[in-house]
Amino acid sequence: MDQVREDLVAFTAEMLEAFTRTDQHRWGQAYVRGLLLDGRRKSVEPMAARLGEDGNRQALAHFVTSSPWDWAHVRARLAWRMQEEIDPTVLVVDDTGFLKDGDASACVSRQYTGTAGKVTNCQVGVSVHLARDHAFAPVNWRLFLPKSWDSGSDLADPLKVARRERCGIPADMGHVEKWQLALDMIDETRSWGVDVPLVLADAGYGDSAAFRLGLKQRGLQYVVGVSSTPTAHPAGARPVTPPYSGTGRPPAAKYPDPARSVKALVIMWRDRDGSGHATILLT
Fold first, then answer.
1. Three-class secondary structure of residue 260 per DSSP
2. Span 58-87, mean pLDDT?
């Protein structure tokens, strides 16, 4: 147990290297240890009760809510360490719902989360993970701000907008789609020198043409899930330009056959070769 404690102290000292004050190092290390201790609730008060001599609730709360430190630097150091430990082969984009009974937490709204498998009252965090077949680690994450919390949105909820300042949400922070949060985090992670050429994501991101295009523009390969409803063309399909009559605007190239749903294409391909696999071009 002493060795585990020593390893944890060394790890947090490395992660919090940029902290300028001794008290930040002390309570940062205590906070990380509190997260790792047994116990379902990870808020400050129950963690303080489990930390023994380091269970100063006020100091822990100050570290989390008021003590200024550069979170980007900490995440960069974590990414560098995990890149070394994991030797990642893929970058995984995901989101997680944090179920909430009340409405005091930032960005809580009724929204879908895979954590519960339904629409419910929750926060949603978008995250980017370094991974390979035997290990993974989250290295960047963002709290998703629903339109109901954005004062500039037509769907703004006055009660939620009024809670922004109390929740510590910056005035210039507005609603951003999850796929854009993911692209922003990929850019940031690559700016740290952590560059994994293959991105994995589920249909929550794969259904977004803008997300797929963003990955392509960044020179990244990707494997993403898609639902059955997006339209697509078989991979062999090619746009055809109709003959120009000589008058009016020249015709634009277009596919000779209309796009079909992904589900219809997969069924067609399965019936044709029996494999159940289809190569398609999403539109």
1. strand
2. 89
